[in-house]
Amino acid sequence: MIAARHNWTKEEILEIYNKPLMELLYEAATIHRQHHDPNTVQVSTLLSIKTGGCPEDCGYCPQAARYHTEIEGNDLMSVQQVKAQALRAKTSGSSRVCMGAAWRNVKDGPEFDQVLEMVRTINKLDMEVCCTLGMLTEHQAKRLAEAGLYAYNHNLDTSEDYYKDVISTRAFEDRLETIDNVRKSNVTVCSGGIIGMGEALEDRAGMLVALSSLNPQPESVPINALVAVEGTPMEEMEPISIWEMIRMVATTRIVMPETQVRLSAGRTDMSREGQAMCFFAGANSIFAGDKLLTTPNPDVNEDMEMFKLLGLNPQKPFTKISQPKTVEAEDSKLQPLGEKPKWSRPEHTIERNEAAKQKKKLVSKE
Predict the structure, then answer these.
(1) Is 278 among the residues known to form the active site?
(2) Active site residue: 130, 253, 267, 278, which one?
(3) Which end of the chain is more exposed for a tag (fewer CB within 10 A), N or C?
(4) What is 155-184 written as a DSSP string?
(5) Hey, is 44 helix, strand or coil?
(6) Which residues of 114-129 are buried (b: 16+ CB within 10 A; e: fewer)?
(7) pLDDT digits 0-9 by tens, 237-286
(8) Using the 8-state DSSP alphabet, how is residue 169 labeled?
(9) Which of 61, 96, 170, 183 is catalytic?
(10) 262 has catalytic annotation
(11) Catalytic annotation, pick one of 96, 170, 183, 190
(12) Is 131 a catalytic site residue?
């Protein structure tokens, strides 16, 4: 059994990525079977608990307030609304609920307290709870852990070199610092990225270098294919081929053998045959439900039909790590500190992001 390595080089990863496809698939599938049940796939439901109005300028994201997209924003959902969605997801076969809020970073106050109550509520349903709320401090991570959070998602998005061509409102180091803060709690890490944003193969390898260098490596690595949304700076990007997705999944599996590799955004454009090859290559986690925050996703019934066809079984919750305990708000020993961390704002200029921003201004004047 191959143990996880933390010293992969970009050259080594590119060599793996560019292997003859059948050789790559065989190696990835072999490693996958050494560390995982090849017929079990973890199913998560992604829920946007606060949509739109984000102050960041991520070139791929329709939730950025500065771009003109058709996304309808909404305020933070209630605890009862989230509970109802979680019960629906559980009935459909999901073992995890991932809650996403379009925030730059977590801020102490009533809304974060409400999210903590959502975490407590879902954990009591015997489901894994994941959150993606932007940057957060060590103390905030520990408050989430105390509430019963199982995982925190904070994607690196791409390589450190290409990051500055995608986002100008935060730095790559902010992502790493947040992941480090999560690691100081008992919460597992979910971190991956997006391919198809105009990056070079070297950037895909660079992202895997950064992820695999983390010690321990992320328990979950989502591999997303860009969904080009009208109004975003990347609206005219050509879709990547299924072969690129298969190669990326297989390479991720080889580089991070113990990690759950999540087949994420872009599945609506993948055939069942293409998804089957991704599962064979080492993907063993998906998002279910008709929407991923704001972009389309296959219907959960379609996914269950595909599972039946391929002989796949949904993974039960807390298979990898035991269920965290929930501490009620009144029993908490971790009170809000009112922190105001200085997250970076590089604010360099990204031409296509600025063009999309100006496009919104023109539309607003009409």
Answers:
(1) no
(2) 130
(3) C
(4) --BS-HHHHTTT-SSS-HHHHHHHHHHHHT
(5) strand
(6) bbbbbbbbbbeeebbb
(7) 999 999 999 999 999 999 999 999 999 887 888 899 999 999 999 999 99
(8) S
(9) 61
(10) yes
(11) 190
(12) no
